[in-house]
Amino acid sequence: DVVLTQTPPTLSATIGQSVSISCRSSQSLLHSNGNTYLNWLLQRPGQPPQLLIYLVSRLESGVPNRFSGSGSGTDFTLKISGVEAEDLGVYYCVQSTHALWTFGGGTKLELK
Amino acid sequence: QVQLQQSGAELAKPGSSVKISCKASGYTFTSYYISWIKQTTGQGLEYIGYINTGSGGTNYNEKFKGKATLTVDKSSSTAFMQLSSLTPDDSAVYYCARVIAYWGQGTLVTVSS
Fold this sequence. Notes:
Radius of gyration of chain A: 13 Å
Oligomer: heterodimer
Number of strands of chain A: 11
Largest sheet of chain A: 7 strands, mixed
Largest sheet of chain B: 7 strands, mixed
Distance between the termini of chain B: 40 Å
Strand content of chain B: over 45%
């Protein structure tokens, strides 16, 4: 099974601060078709998760461009360039390269 | 627009079963698999498995084999998940999702005597 390890588990930030979240996979997420199906979700309290970034670095429609994703193979990063209040919640990386998705443990972003 | 509307909260007794529904709209139902995900406070997000909405074929996370049964009704564009032999550990919010981009609102299942 693919295991995704997310760090840090908790992140405290001030408004306007830039932060990064790491996601490391136990196996390469490069699919045989050449795509890497590593995605990032944000879950706000009481809401279902919403897609922020797919295919490592592609921004989902409507997502602000202060969010960016990078990485390849087994190491990936989500960066928020200038945290805003609406960004607070739990971030998850999730891989859909392999038939059965797996999720990282989550990173809770809170205000300092 | 794509929508996945899930059925309401369930309160069930240990040993019983529940069946959750996920009604899809805004796209051709049989063109996309439907996945199911479990969320508990302690365990985060766990992938249960998916169903091929065209063929009815399924693929389950080993952990949920024997616990979850996925089915579809193409005539109503609805996917179902039945959870059997319920225990308190099955208490969770369950989501359906179409690919990674579209999620239902979640169904809370509480197992208690």
